[in-house]
Amino acid sequence: RQRWRLDGRALRKLPLHVGLVVTEEEPSYADMASLVVWCMAVGISYVSVYDHNGIFKRNNSRLMDEILKQQQELLGLDCSKYTVEFANQDQADQVLNCQSTLKVLSPEDGKADIIKAAQNFCQLVAQQQRTHTDLDVNVLDNLLSSTNGFPDPDLVLKFGPVDSTLGFLPWHIRLTEIISLPSHVNISYEDFFSALRHYAACEQRWGK
User: Fold this and answer.
1) Are residues 139 and 43 in the same domain?
2) Could you give the CA distance from residue 19 to residue 53 in angstroms, rounded to a whole number?
3) Which of 1, 67, 173, 200 has the smallest number of Cβ neighbours within 10 A?
4) At residue 109, does pLDDT exceed 90?
5) Distances from the Cα of 173 to the Cαs of 13, 94, 155, 167, 195, in angstroms?
6) Same domain for 155 and 140?
7) Do residues 60 and 87 touch, judged by C-beta distance below 8 A?
8) Residue 40's domain is classified under what CATH number?
9) Which domain covers residue 131, as residue numbers?
């Protein structure tokens, strides 16, 4: 437990928001829960979980149960709680906290959310509450529901053989560092932390 906290502090930079993107056909709830708990343990504030079939989102209670179980087993946290948000859903669960916030996303939170935001903006223009010249990056960010309250991901860990993020938040990952790993199944903490070290060592030029 102490090692994880020290690991996080030892990195030159720690991502504020990590996206965990699974491109494999068979998602593992236990392994994804481990990744989420490790993110929490090293001090990452925001975590997004995504698979292109929406399996984790449809079965979010199963994923939350596994996260809760592993938090108790691995971290031994007290009973402080935080809200786990589900994008584009009204429901919310409570699980034990390491001051992190989690969203479970599916493809509907990507391109479909951008289309919905554009439609909402057009409706505001039609109602004369906005003009077409008001549209900019910040306005569109505010209209997107999938990451409301979340910063853009600093780092995406993509798992699986597919050389694509398969629709994960296309608007938000313009400047995101993407690291590919063979699989999330049976992934070790060492593999996870090695990816964080790689991110900490990379020089981001912001398109320059």
Assistant:
1) no
2) 16
3) 1
4) no
5) 18, 28, 9, 11, 18
6) no
7) no
8) 3.40.1180.10
9) 111-145
Between 75 and 21, the higher pLDDT residue: 21
139 and 160, same domain (yes or no)? no
Instruction: Identify which has the larger pLDDT, 85 or 103.
Output: 103
Classify burial at 29, counting beta carbons within 10 Å of its beta carbon; exposed 0-12, middle 13-18, buried 19 or more.
Answer: middle
Higher pLDDT, 117 or 168: 168
Q: For residue 5, give the nearest of 51, 130, 24, 14 by alpha carbon.
A: 14
Which two structure tokens, joined as six digits, stand for 32?
């994804």
Helix (H, G, I), strand (E, B) or coil at 85: strand
Q: Tell me the backbone φ, ψ of residue 60, rounded to 5 degrees.
A: -65, -30
Interaxial angle between packed helices 2-10 and 29-42, expressed in degrees from 0 to 180 and rounded to the nearest 10: 70
Q: For residues 95 and 181, which has the higher predicted lDDT (pLDDT)?
A: 181
Q: Are 76 and 2 in contact (CB under 8 A)?
A: no
Residue 23 has which token pair?
């491109």
- Is the same domain home to 9 and 102? yes
Count of residues making up the chain: 208
Closest to 102 measured CA to CA, from 38, 55, 165, 52: 38
Same domain, 38 and 121: no
CA distance 53 to 41: 28
Q: Indicate the number of domains in the chain.
A: 2
